[in-house]
Amino acid sequence: MKWPRGRTKEAPAGVVGTARLGGRSGGEVSPELLRRLGRGDVAVIDQVDLDRATAHAFVDAGVAGVINVSPSISGRYPNLGPEILTDAGVALVDDVGDGVLRRVRDGASVRLHDGGVYLGEDEVARGFEQNAETVADQLAEARSGLAAQLEAFSANTTEFMGRERAMLLDGVGVPGLETAMNDRTVLVVAGGSDRVEELRRLKHFVREERPVLVGVGGGAAALRTAGFTPAVVVGTALEIDPELARKAVDVVIPADTDGHIAGLARLQDAGIDPVGFPSSANPEDMALILAQRHGASLVVACGFDATLSGFLDRGRSGSNPSTLLTRLRLGPTLVDASAVAALHRHRVTTGAVLLLLLAVMAVGATALFASGLAEAIVMLVREGWAAALAAAQGVGG
User: Which of 33, 313, 337, 346 lies 20 to 30 Å from 358, alpha-carbon distance?
Assistant: First the structure.
């Protein structure tokens, strides 16, 4: 007798993952959320105009989906984050409203389908599901907002210059370092999306030139992955890896003008005593200013993006004016890593030449002994040397 087979339960439609909440700020995604994300998670964020750096961090973490309380593309300018997510196959549900932050708890299993956010069978929020076509259309419309953004950029630059004039021109507030940089090449590695590939291309340059290594945020981890240890680590207290920071000579973190350092206790509990850099510049530009003020002869920037789209596509306020003015301050001292990788030629060291000569001599000696002519050659050399000495003595007599 055959028993009737039960129906196989179909998997629910859409993307299912564990929700990881990133707060209600409406601004940048916190480093704390980025640290907690794992493969298959669904990041719940509140960020208008999702930037490229955050999107790359989501892709690197292996998230299955992103729920954004706010519009990922507001139309102010063509930001690149949503395109990176959709190209990587990450589900993106946009503009769901802040009610999702009250109804979805961190660690809950959520499902994304057709713009809806579900807990089990219950829809708890609804937004707009982005895909490659919708993102392309919105970015095309957003390009018309570039003029307004450039005007705002000009105003922000003037404001930043007035606020940070003493630091930029006279180095007021730039902290001292134990690491010697005077008349040395300094390689500053930031957390840009191209940092790993650029470091790979700079491998011979680093081993031959031995520059001072400065890691900024995720750039410090990239240096470690490439087999190098940064001498200086720069970044916020939340994004710095304590294990890596303990191996550095100097750890520099941003501070308020009154000296307050957010998250300082976290590093001190890990046995790290960082120095504060009171400035509204972003950590990447702080690292460049540190190198310039401490006498670096050449500063190589790896993992940076100073293109027009890079200027506008930032998650941190103040990044644009600080980046422009910092690059003007360093002038010809600052070189992009891609240019160094293209121009640098791997040179053969003296040690390598000597090793090659020794190897050739060893092979030659082995061949002589194997041929049986070694004894005759040694005898001829001795007789020649004796004849030369006798002739010299005759001339002297």
Answer: 346
